[in-house]
Amino acid sequence: MSDQTMAAGFAAAFLDYAVAEGVPRDSLLAASRLTEDDLADQDTRIPVTSYRTLIATGIEATGDTSLLLRHVLETRLEMISIVGQIVHASTSFPHSLDQLNRYSRLMADVPIPGGRDRFELARDAGAVWLVDHRPSDGSWMATEASFARFISEFRRSAPEHPFEQALEVTYAPPPHANRYPELFRVPVTFRAARNALRINPVWLDEAFDGGKDYVFGIFTRHADALLDELATHDTMRSVVETRMLAGLHEGTLSMDLIARDLGMSRQTLYRRLKDEGATFAQVHDDLRRRMAMDYLSAGKVSVGETAYLLGFSEASAFVRAFRRWTGASPTAWRGD
């Protein structure tokens, strides 16, 4: 969604990495419409679209689609985000995963269907899997980077107990799939039913050396303050959009359902949206429009898949809606 934001620290770190790879700094900033001031404080919020453009520009300039993946594997989360500092001050991997889910919004806005935690530990036939519940749109970039972040942190902090054992991803092999054996170092299953990393079960019980209650408390108090600040900038429209995103693909959204999830009556939700000059139907329709353009401009999913992701029962209904939004069919708008 074009209104989603994220912490500037991630963009600043990628910017530095791409520059080290030979990409002119000015061209990266100009393409992403970011300034040095935007990136000076790692906790400042920037548009997610700017970060995506930054990455796309770096990849285009280097001709290396594995650029983000290599960046993640070679950088440290605690140098980019307060969440990384909290993770490293946790007492164990399960404890750190709880903190990652709790403070995930401080890294980026990523609505998860059904209000679930983004990451979950699941047992399957004696194996332990780290499952990522981020909605799949057929693209590889965000998913591979997320799992690479876990892997890179453990490779540096605890090489004596390899963390990763196998990887399952829903996307097709990316252009740099030939580098996966070198970079991930585990068997990878493409076009799987879920995005999940099989992990070494020793990490369910192994204590972290860095767990310190005092330091952990300092970091979490700061993180809680950041979360509270983010919440003060949330409009009712943005809150409703976040709830909508989590279940958009199901096509069963209703005002009653969203109101219940938000702990208010339908009348209260109606009134609060009206105070902001919006209606529930307008918010839903505009969200679908923006998401459609995001999906189609990325070029990772088909028109039919986009229709499904946006909750349309038939592709034809989506095509009609898209014509109403843009005056063109999805294929014509995308330039197919």
Automatic annotation (TrEMBL):
Residue ranges of domain HTH araC/xylS-type in the record: 234-336
Keyword field: DNA-binding, Transcription, Transcription regulation
Domain of life: Bacteria
Native source organism of the sequence: Limimaricola litoreus
Listed name of the protein: AraC family transcriptional regulator
GO cellular component: cytosol
Residue runs in coiled coils: none
Pfam families: Arabinose_bd, HTH_18
Gene Ontology MF terms in the entry: DNA-binding transcription factor activity; transcription cis-regulatory region binding
InterPro entries reported for this sequence: AraC-type_N (IPR032687), Homeodomain-like_sf (IPR009057), HTH_AraC (IPR018060)
Gene3D superfamilies per record: Homeodomain-like
